[in-house]
């Protein structure tokens, strides 16, 4: 069920990262029913987890969003006021111009709601980054007149659009993301197709992001992609390039849902049972740096939400140093099982 | 000891069956895994068959497992319910078709 307010606005105990981490280390993990993540990866000599070559810079432009999705690990929503300032953006641009990463990935909340979003995209697109991704929730394009031209804007700057669409049918999408979200998402996808996204010869990439609408893991990414392609084409004449299947991590609002629905233990068992050592080798924190709206550096977007800053002398964009950062140990906890289950999970989909 | 015959948490322990007979347990799980692989039937189709059979054999563990498996595969509730009806129809049909035996016997014994 979609929600009305963020955990933060409800002043819920789980809005505190410390409380979430405590919860994730107690119960079945404290009792020893399930192994701690660090012990599990030690079985295959992956502890401590170290970064490989930096490939992706992921920037969170703010937690404000036009939706309040029930699974959101960011706890985003209209009531969140954390927004990246122009000053931090300038610091990010300096990093983007000098990074060895080949991918820039903008996320949020709804990154388009940052008042300096367009200026930032224009500037960042000049930096010559090979793959420039904006994560769009789609409905933002129809949320207000001022966003209607976003497809044209994305096209102009050759932005690679990655859009969330939990399912190709209305009921599951609306249950997770709110009533009316499915129809708006479909309309937005058609608008993106109309300007050339996912159309042959344009080079404009449109990927979809699927995440399960409940306490279960995603199935085979390729099979899902095929189902989405057939259904969206037949029902709505929509084209897209790839589908990324992402596992919901047990943090923030998804953790709240797991606890309230009494699915938490079963879900953790399912994650641990599906643990795949091969996925650990390619888990996204080994090739990504996540930068928060206020310039702090994290191993991934999930660690950002748990306020687990990188274990490095360099912790802020203001003194960013890629060589020093690459020498760090990655911070882990039990939520990391979400990225190592089955075929693995990352912002770019499966990893194993 | 549990006061009920079924505990949902026992499903997680299914793999422990091998502890008391490793050879047979392992053979079973190898066979089971192989059966559900993509073949002439897709894994999706097999999941729906398993769901229907789970209801017919009235195995609560299996119903939990294949409802979840169906969700993971993107099988929607209308498909799941149709599968259950297929199982129910066969089960009730199997009862009813024995009515022919009853009719045969009745006729045979009657003058």
From TrEMBL, chain A:
Record-annotated Radical SAM core domain positions: 60-197
Iron-sulfur among keywords: yes
Superkingdom as given in the UniProt entry: Bacteria
The alphabetized UniProt keywords are: Iron, Iron-sulfur, Metal-binding, S-adenosyl-L-methionine
The segment(s) forming the Arsenosugar biosynthesis radical SAM protein ArsS-like C-terminal domain are 217-350
Molecular function terms from GO: catalytic activity; iron-sulfur cluster binding; metal ion binding
Query: What single Pfam family name could you report for this chain, choosing any that match?
Result: Radical_SAM
Cofactor(s) demanded: [4Fe-4S] cluster
Which NCBIfam families does the entry mention? rSAM_SeCys
In Swiss-Prot or TrEMBL terms, this protein is called: Radical SAM/Cys-rich protein
Q: What is the lineage of its organism?
A: Bacteria, Pseudomonadati, Bacteroidota, Flavobacteriia, Flavobacteriales
UniProtKB/TrEMBL annotation, chain B:
Kindly list the GO molecular function terms attached to this UniProt entry.
Answer: peroxiredoxin activity
Kindly give the Pfam families that the UniProt entry links to this protein: CMD
Q: Which UniProt keywords apply?
A: Oxidoreductase, Peroxidase
Q: What are the Carboxymuconolactone decarboxylase-like domain coordinates in residue numbering?
A: 23-101
List, alphabetically, the InterPro entries matched: AhpD-like, AhpD_core, AlkhydPrxdase/COmuclacdeCOase, CMD-like
Q: The organism sits in which domain of life?
A: Bacteria
Q: List, alphabetically, the PANTHER family matched.
A: ALKYL HYDROPEROXIDE REDUCTASE AHPD (PTHR33930), BLR3452 PROTEIN (PTHR33930:SF2)
Designated name of the protein: Alkylhydroperoxidase/carboxymuconolactone decarboxylase family protein
Q: What is the protein's species of origin?
A: Gillisia mitskevichiae
Organismal lineage? Bacteria, Pseudomonadati, Bacteroidota, Flavobacteriia, Flavobacteriales
